[in-house]
Amino acid sequence: ASDTTTQEIIKLSKQVKTARQAYLDASYRTISEDYYQQIMTLDLSNSSKSKRSSQPLVVWATQTGTAKTFAAELQQNLQTPRGKSMSQLTLMDVAMHSKIYFVVSTFGLGRPPRDAE
Fold it and tell me: For the whole model, what pTM was predicted?
């Protein structure tokens, strides 16, 4: 009975892993398609490129605050006042900065923090 139970657990574990990967793949495709549509509507003509900020943008995503602390230190070292949470990041921010630094932590078993979902 012990071998059967172990085999069932392994089988269920594989099913959960497969289902999780399918969910992540579907989520990624949806996000990618949404961003693609947004990018296609952005005006990135030469005039908007010339308006790009020379100061870098520091973006963080954190669950417990560790990444935000590191991001604040990076901002101080780079001497840039520009920083924001990844949850507030827009495509216009990306388009308007020539350099963006991402400071992202993981949470629990490697999951993304709330700010990055």
Answer: 0.58
